[in-house]
Amino acid sequence: PTNVHMLQAWAVMENKHGDAEAARSLFARGFDLDPENPYICQAWGILEQRLGNRERARKLFEACVSLRPQTEVCVAWAVMEAREGNTDKARELFRQGLAAADQQSVGMNGDGKSGVLRNWAEMEERLGELPRARELLGKALKLNPNAETHVALAKLELRRGAENRASELMRVAAALPDASASVFNSWATLQLARGQLDDAILTCQEGLRRHVRDPSILQTMGNVEMNRRNTTSARAFLEQSILARPTAPAYVAWALLERREGHTDRARELFEQALRADPLHGAAYNAYGTMEARDGNIEEARDVYDRGLRKGLTSSSLLQGYGQLELRYGRNVQRARELFRLGVQQTRDDTCFVWHSWGMLELADRRPLAARRVLDEALKRYPRNSRILVAAALAYASAVPGVMSELDQARALFKRGVAADPTHAHAWQAWGVFELRQGKVNAARALFRRGLRMCPSHGALWQAWAVLECGTCHFARSRSLFERGLQCCPNHVYLFQAWACMEVRCSNIDKARELLDKALEIDPNHGPTWTAYGLLEFRFGLLQDARRLYLTGLERAPNHAPLYRTFAQSEARVGNFRRARELFEAGLAAEPHNAALYHAMAEFEGMLGNVDALAELKLRASKYFGPDNAEPILAGEGDDMLETLFRSDSEVTEAEGNLPETPMERALRESAEMVR
Length: 676
Fold this sequence. Notes:
Blueprint: H1 4-16, H2 20-33, H3 38-50, H4 54-67, H5 71-83, H6 87-103, H7 113-126, H8 130-143, H9 147-159, H10 163-175, H11 181-193, H12 197-210, H13 215-227, H14 231-244, H15 248-260, H16 264-277, H17 282-294, H18 298-310, H19 316-328, H20 333-343, H21 352-364, H22 368-381, H23 386-397, H24 407-420, H25 425-437, H26 441-454, H27 459-471, H28 475-488, H29 493-505, H30 509-522, H31 527-540, H32 543-556, H33 561-573, H34 577-590, H35 595-607, H36 611-625, H37 627-635, H38 639-644, H39 663-675
Helix pairs in contact: 1-2, 1-3, 2-3, 3-4, 3-5, 4-5, 5-6, 5-7, 6-7, 7-8, 8-9, 9-10, 10-11, 11-12, 11-13, 12-13, 13-14, 13-15, 14-15, 15-16, 15-17, 16-17, 17-18, 17-19, 18-19, 19-20, 19-21, 20-21, 21-22, 21-23, 22-23, 23-24, 23-25, 24-25, 25-26, 25-27, 26-27, 27-28, 27-29, 28-29, ...
């Protein structure tokens, strides 16, 4: 009963299984026995912080440090203060941790000051202070050139866009005698992101040679095989990982594999096993909830997230996921707002992405003043976070009746965003689009050019600049930019698609077909390309070819709502109303939460004067969006702004409207206007 280490381990176990009260009681017993014990103070303080009791956590950390500064406690306290926005206090505590490491025989993570410096560098990186983070990691390497510090520096270099440097650091880390399994996992994951699948397999094999049957490496092998479309092999590796040690991440990876293969019930079973293995694994709740939501099971998805909250899991990632569910599928903006507000209070976690989502929610809800307040508050905690700076710039650029845009402030924030992270390609892209909308074509062109100098492999930037030139009728220049972009990003599907749209404007229909064929060779499951190709053939080719493309697209991308919409509208235009209605119905069965599809079908039924069908559509929309939102959804009001929240960075922002044109629709319209 007086063994402090046993009490601490027991408390951690109880907390892991969701019993926070039992954990707190056990920590208190251990603290009473040994108030200077750093492990008790650190773990108990982190527990209180996660439960939202930040003052209690601060008092625990302070009590321990006042008796005898301990490296672990100083670092835990510093991390909490950093997440609260108290960066000066955090830096002071990191310095105390360094001093304490000099006095301790064994430092944090087994390498004393080097471990403190890594944690400090992580804080600076999250604040956007990349040069400072790099300096701290350099000091850590000089003190102890171990594998963990090499990996930390590699990840920082990767964020700066220095992929080759990051890969070299990973290679050095893996060759060191202290290289853990996580080193090989990190290196294989980097290779996977770069499309080096065979190299990733070799890295995992070397990791397994050094760490025989390590479950995390076996899981990574499964992920690589998933990307190679070797389903049987991927399943075998994931099963081996679970047999070696049943972990929630391995169950989640396997569930996602089964989901991809269309085995939803099996995926659901695996998600349940993941939650039994670790009831506090936030990623499992997010992946499980997202699967249910995409299948139209909104209440079941909510229940998944509520189960996590009932277990005491109030992580920022869980609340972020729940908020996105309410926003994207439930269309419950107020509930999403409440969840984001709760998420930013979880200061044990990194909350910058929750602040960003909350600010963008307010912007999409046409409340720019609220968006500015949220993002200004976020900047107090993350003053050099490029993503938040860009979001704040968009908020100040926005205007609604009664609220004017502040263009100078927006421009200043864009400037700070690219200064904080010159390799943040989307910051250059967003700033360029902003200037273009102010009529400053040359300024936009200069920003795209500068962004590509910093980020030459970012396809969306090449696309943005090429589309600008196309929009100003500089077709030869646009074509040259598409060609150069594809030399740098040969597998960027959206570049092929956008180039095809440009060629349609120039009436080069055969060239457009060639480009769309190449896009589909790269990604045969890309719904937007099948949609564009079908529409192209509908306008310039044979109806039977268009139908063949639409049908093949639906086989490849059965959940792509715009494909159903475009196919249905094409059939309606040739008078095949029964087939059009069948396609709308099939689309709503596949994507029951897609507001644009409801609106398109409502327009179709309205054109035919089908009052009964409109009433039935309204009832169905009420099920997914609530009775108050059903009528506006059918009318197409307020839909597209919310959709822009989740538009991929790879897609150039299109003009807003009740149902915005796809790039191919616009190209076809402009082509027809040029002919006239």
